[in-house]
Amino acid sequence: MNIFYHLPGLFEFYDLYKAFLPLFHEHREYFYDWCEIGSIYGAPSDCIWGGGRVGFGEAEPREVAELMKEYGISARFTFSNSLIRKEHLADKKCNKLCEMFENGNASMDGATSNRGCSGQGKSEIRDEKEIRAVQNGIIIHSDLLLNYIKNKYPNYYFVSSTTKVITDFEQFKAELSREEFRYVGLNKQFDKLNALTNAQKQKVEFLCNECCWFGCPDRKKCYENVSQKSLGENSEDHICVSPTAQRGYRFSDAMKNPGFIGIEDIQNIYAPAGFRHFKIEGRSLGSALILEFLLYYMTKPEHQLKVREEIYLDSTLDLF
């Protein structure tokens, strides 16, 4: 059974994925054969519908759309602002994004891709027949925004955002039952999950390497603060109460987090139980750290150095 990873930084780490995706597709022997990329998610900077993390994505949307089309990957917008009001629905930038990406990878104004495969050092035109028609999605919090996008841009699928901070299991099951959501995000809570039906399990998307302090009591306030900033509203910076806040995010610390889901957990516990979708967090981090996530979760240990060298030796890529 294939596992699908949902990766961070659609607009934030475009340059990294432009180097990584050719490797992933041309050298599948470097990577676990049971894993696939289910989507890449993110939002451009100054996107008022954005939430979860403060966006800094500067990539050109049309180039992002072309890259996702070329490799048959679902693009997801993180439109998870929890404070959307009716007047925000008319935002030109967000509506333009929805128009541009609505038809997924099936069509981009009739354009034909001729991006060179940098990993092979040659230019190659990919046969359009090889490109899967993939639907794009939206990670969403606000029901007001959900209903607006459903009516105006009906070709998207929707993901219930973890910014809802659903901790009650019955509330989580109710969210799974909502037909408008294809997936529902969840932090680690495995004890009751085996009782779910197979159809419900296919909608569960686990957060693997969360950046937040596990069990943080201020998570909702933090997300609301980000939503305020995305809307351009004046608000004081949220002060993180995590005991390790001064250290910043470290993958080695995240691995000690009770909510951490490692690759052995995925292979030996979650996949056998019927769960297939796993979200890697990190679009507010640096591209060098995102590469470490790609190596740990997707790359066979004996090939991790090869992949790291290919990425680091790419002269067009500025890792930070």
Summed up, the domain count is 1
Shape: globular
Assembly state: single chain
Order of helices and strands: EHEHEHEHEHEHEHHHEHH
Separate helix tally:
11
Q: Which spans of ≥5 residues are poorly predicted at pLDDT below 50?
A: 106-131
In what order do the strands lie side by side in the largest sheet?
1-2-3-4-5-6-7-8
Number of β-strand runs: 8
What this model shows, in words?
The chain is an alpha/beta fold. It has one domain (3-312). 31% of the residues lie in helices and 13% in strands. It has helices at residues 14-26, 61-70, 92-101, 143-152, 169-176, 198-201, 219-230, 251-254, 263-270, 287-298, 304-312; strands spanning 3-8, 35-42, 74-79, 137-140, 157-160, 181-186, 204-207, 277-279. The chain has an eight-stranded parallel barrel with strand order 1-2-3-4-5-6-7-8. Strand 5 (157-160), helix 5 and strand 6 form a beta-alpha-beta unit. The model is unreliable at 106-131 (pLDDT under 50).
